[in-house]
Amino acid sequence: MGGGRLGPGCPVSDTDAGARPDSAGGAASSAGGALTDGARLRALLSPASIAVIGASEDPETLSGRPLQILAQHGYTGAVYPVNPRHRSIGGIPAFPSIGD
Prior knowledge:
By secondary structure, the chain is of the alpha+beta class. 17% of the residues lie in helices and 14% in strands. The chain is built from two helices and four strands, in the order αβαβββ. It has helices spanning 37-45, 65-72, and strands spanning 49-53, 78-82, 88-89, 92-93. It has a two-stranded parallel ribbon. The longest helix is centred in the middle third of the chain and has 9 residues, at 37-45. It is globular and about 40 Å long.
């Protein structure tokens, strides 16, 4: 299952928020597979994907603003709008529940 695109110039990848390389190009996880504190912080502040629960097509509503803001600020990760009433939101495939 892939995420969606947030408009022109916003490529989206199908990566997960797992361990990422550290700034020196090395693995961010320790030998045991647990994420280091730095890797956890990077995953929190620069997520590879975002689910927007209750997403709306109307950018003037509270539930429509997250998608608009992500696009305006150039978020390049996968986006998963979650709303059981829509098949797509802003051209991005929507999901009926977080488990789908």
